[in-house]
Prior knowledge:
The protein has 294 residues and is of the alpha+beta class. The protein has one domain (2-184, 224-289): PPM-type phosphatase domain (Phosphatase 2c, domain 1, 4-Layer Sandwich), CATH 3.60.40. Helices cover 30% and strands 28% of the residues. The strands form two sheets. Strands 1, 3, 4, 5, 6, 7, 8 and 11 form an eight-stranded mixed β-sheet that branches. A hairpin with a 2-residue loop joins strand 7 (151-157) and strand 8 (160-166). Helix 1 runs antiparallel to helix 2. It starts with a strand and ends in a 5-residue tail after the last strand.
Amino acid sequence: MDIATTASMATDPGAMPSDEEVDFYGLTHPGKVRTANRDHFLICSVRKHLEVHGTSLPDKGGLSVDSNRLAFLAMVADGVGSGDKAEEASRLAVSTITRYVSEALQTYYTTDSVDPESFSRALADAAINCHQVIESQALENRDLMGMATTLTLWIGIWPKAYLLQIGDSRCYVFRDDRLTQLSRDQTMAQDFIDQGIFTVTDARGSRLEHVLSSSIGGPQSMPVVTTMDQNWNNVGLLCSDGLTKHVSDERIAEVLRNMTSAQQVCEVLLQEALDGGGTDNITIIVGRDRKKES
């Protein structure tokens, strides 16, 4: 596991946004080529219970844990491979890690405050436990052998935020008119770029661009947890690679620059990914904090 800390993004975060000051939306689409959707997503508030706002999971009844908001949670999982086992892997990852994270939050909120380092370790441990659950399911059902998934999870515990990354789904932040990719793609191509073997140009279009070097349920799982400060005026975006295969970072930034709502951004970006070919499942989550008018 790897735990990293980003530079602070704010010096004075102010008061935590109220429920009415959080604008969020998520959607998922099979695309134009694939017959099944192997992506799953979840957006929820963690209170002393779990309040689900949006998800692709077929049954959200098993997620509930009761009502001030303790944290805000969003995640995207992109099942790897073909057939039902890819969809099952992403579904299992989202439902399993939600339970682990909500339990960790309840544990840390029984103390005076959440310790960032301890919570980062708890997130990484949750990812490892989730990996083991998927491996165990595959051993029990041979039809599920080889199932794996990416997982990109963002959790805000004001004024801190935590990003858990496994695979090549992505997390971006748009702030001060600039789009920044917070997650690192865990792919063979990116590994070669980091080692100086590939240039970015070499990697683009290479068959290794979408070969994962880390996944949940795969041969290697290397969760990375990044801690950062939250601030008003940030827009966050999580997505599977069905979006970034067809829509450039420059275009994503332009859409966010002209944002009217989280729903509007998700719908515009989905349509652009479909217009660009829609060769994969597409999942997008967008969230921002907006101060209420006095």
